[in-house]
């Protein structure tokens, strides 16, 4: 078989604000790959089926000398994210042709991924008839983030009140459902009326559009907060501190409000951390996986398949459109978990 | 015996910024008390020996309708704080004439204090020849704050690095000594060269005057921080977040940098809480007392008496000068634990 084109999304330029398709990332078709003869060196050749576009990826679009919790993308190389693929050739006994794999994949049609460490690809079998792409969202990393963080830090009691910012996203909507299952009153915020409706559809008792309604007013009326699940940081976090109950637990999962600006945020209620004995728990999903992953797979895929837990996917077709998908998750234009379909199964 | 003058420090006006003696508080000598006949209603009559002036008291100088973790002072009534007194008359079997008591006392020469609850006065015996006023500082609430918070949250390992802001105060200097005992490298900040020297005298490896040296620069050079003991909040907290190690523990004890202003602070590194998996623990000493008080009294007074643990007291003589003492602890003019001596023993 002759070499085939291997389309790739290349990291082209470090953005100063939002990532821009065609500038921050460029879709490149100049490379080919010989699927039969490309050397594997004991690894596996993967055909990419679906890729995840996540808010945190903005953190990787930075200069190579700035440290953070994930390595920076490299200019001239494909970007990477969680992905789903199929094994098309293998020199490793743990992988057979036709196996589904999930893990961090290059944004390319074909790749030889890392198979070691917490981000290396692993074989998985979609259960209960779930389509593979769900293992990027409702049964994948965002849902794991929600499940692990909630189990580890929420210390929730029935009747308590939780506020979930970014409530319509794949992490937030899972948190809402976990909290309702445990008998909490759930307040959720989102950035459009359609998203607010989705928060209600998955069980939020109070949901509001933070762009048209004052977060402070809602929290003052509906609080105090025993738990705050923070996906956004910034002034929303400040409002949550102002309306926290004594001994509140704040689960610090993300800070999308600050990813695209370096200006900082005026915070007026930091002193409430000590005054109200608030605990703030920063965490990354990868650190909690050893403790909670088994229970996650026992519980969540079944609930997704049965319809007990709801989800929403927002599909972008074609790797050539992935740059736009990356921008959408930064501005909140997506409705549900953003998945880039690269190839049909 | 004829009634005697009962000088009192009255809360006169809610301050907008720093408390001002003669305005925020007024020393009043218009009341007398009949020490032999004042009705006790089952309580005790106390002669005040010493009173504490603490930064947190600014939080109580607020409008009566604003909630916080301690009740507001009441206009026209004496302010109150931790104090040491001697029983001069008792109708309660738990108190005998001549007993020393400690607890929350009115700023008055004589009072009938609350004897119930966590803030009620209790009988104590100064041990190892310690002078009673030390039970307001090095063997009292500030040292308990340091001891309880450190034991509960520091999770310190030898060789780790801790940063202590407000290192020369009665809380900070105790934290430095606890951290050195456990084999940590200690960085401490303070607001004058004299205070910096005291931080070094009690064991800090690195101590600096934050008014003349950049906190960011020092932390960048001497960090990363595994533990941060936060007495000040604000931009110092932001600098600590920027220089935190992954999984750092931040013990949120106070926020004096923000007590006298409502403007808020620009924070640029809040997103590091999740990115570096930082845990922030807000706490109040009263909540941790049931767990750690016994160990505190077994360990600390002995170390104070032997000289193993060092302390500094800054004495103000006379209740009529207490208003000035309250201002000094807000501006950091005091050198060591500020104690107001009301009457000699």
TrEMBL record, chains A, B:
SUPFAM superfamilies, A to Z: GroES-like (SSF50129), NAD(P)-binding Rossmann-fold domains (SSF51735)
Matches recorded under InterPro entries: ADH-like_C, ADH_N_2, ER, GroES-like_sf, MDR_fam, NAD(P)-bd_dom_sf
Origin: domain of life: Eukaryota
Keywords: Oxidoreductase
Residue ranges constituting the Enoyl reductase (ER) domain according to the UniProt record: 44-340
MF-aspect GO terms: oxidoreductase activity, acting on the CH-CH group of donors, NAD or NADP as acceptor
A Pfam family recorded for this sequence: ADH_zinc_N
The keyword Oxidoreductase is annotated on this UniProt entry: yes
PANTHER family noted in UniProt: PROSTAGLANDIN REDUCTASE, PROSTAGLANDIN REDUCTASE 1
Name under which the protein is recorded: NAD(P)-binding protein
Lineage: Eukaryota, Fungi, Dikarya, Basidiomycota, Agaricomycotina
